[in-house]
Amino acid sequence: MAKILVVDDDLTVQLVLRNLLTSQSHEVAIAQNGEEALRYVKSLHPDLIICDWIMPRLDGLEVCRQVKADPELATTFIILLTMRDQITDRVQGLDAGADEFISKPIDVEELLARVRAGLRSRQLTQQLSQALRQLQQTQAQWVQTEKMASLWQLVAGLAHELNNPVTFIYSNISYLERYTQDLIELLNLYQGITPNPPPDVIDKIETIDLNFLIDDLPKVLSSMRRGTQRIHKMVLSLQEFSQQNRSGLQTVDIHQELDNTLLMLNYRLQSPELDIEVVKDYGNLPLVECYACQLNQVFLNIINNAIDAIREETRTIPARIILRTEQLENERVVIRIANNGSHIPSDIKARIFDPFFTTKPIGTGTGLGLAISYQIIVGQHKGSIQCLSEPGTDTEFRIELPTSVNAKTISS
After folding, report:
1. 3.40.50.2300, 3.40.630.30, 3.30.420.40, 3.40.50.2000: which CATH number matches 3-106?
2. Helix and strand tally (H, E) in the chain?
3. Domain boundaries along the sequence of the chain
4. CATH topology assigned to domain 259-412
5. Which residue of 107, 121, 300, 361 lies most exposed, with the fewest beta carbons within 10 A?
6. What is the pTM of this model?
7. Number of other CB atoms surrounding residue 310 within 10 Å
8. Are 312 and 342 within 8 A, CB to CB?
9. pLDDT tens-digit profile of 54-81?
């Protein structure tokens, strides 16, 4: 059964076509004129339109043009009813977007044959469009995979080059702290033995502000220790990320993967122009079997988008990203990543996981991040991912995963 819209200002034609097409088990809607037809077509999304050429105010040619100009309706098959049989007329109709013509007075057998042919054409066009979308998505995922593979190779090389000097510095900080403390203690002994040093020594003490130096030097070393610890931790995270890229299924700590992702994005979270608070509300999760590198890619995409959403909004309250985790029944876990940026309108939310759909300016977004994230969570891990966003509330991405990819899928 197909959905067919009949557009004609003649009541007799309307009744004849309705009865004829309904007898063939089609769902038939009637529009009295072109303007009404365009209103119907937005909600009905018919498979085929039979439209009179000559109508008041908005004729069949204009209906064709506007329907074919809408990407969501462009595959609709349109048959024009007309008494015009000149080649120039048919050329004009084809240029406007008509797919077929039927001459008046209408021959019933011809009409039904052209309807059947039109519906077959519509079906083939839809199949080709779907195949093209799948091909584009596959190509995009392949390109993204190649990009990520190159990135992980760069990350692995960078981590390797950084590891030795950072480890050297990190390992020697403790010796430097001990040596400094020994020298300060020795200096204190000398000051106790020689309470009245020579004038040149007194001048040097005043020049270097010895008391400040003794007080500040341990603080400087402590800051160096914290800095090298941070660099060392980042190098370890880089190495872990690059190693996961070469691995298949792994059993991982989700909290550790989230923390590694946050560490990778710390330069954005704590940038000079906007300091984003990260709130962790971690539950008691079991280890989860997953493709760790792919899962980290999802976390990176979602948190990066959260940062972008926060930056795009004029701030009246502190910026915040909240990470929540919870163990569910049926051997499943849930990960919630929320932000207090601007909410996502319902029309955008409905398409947010579509390939190549993006609201970012040209050149700043490909529309692939969330589409690939959806494929990773749903296709690779048998999980689910949802976007929850309403005015006045945080925008939240809810990810549900089985603890094992071989576990039974539970719809949410």
Report:
1. 3.40.50.2300
2. 12, 14
3. 3-106, 136-246, 259-412
4. Heat Shock Protein 90 (3.30.565)
5. 361
6. 0.51
7. 21
8. yes
9. 888 889 899 999 999 988 888 899 999 9
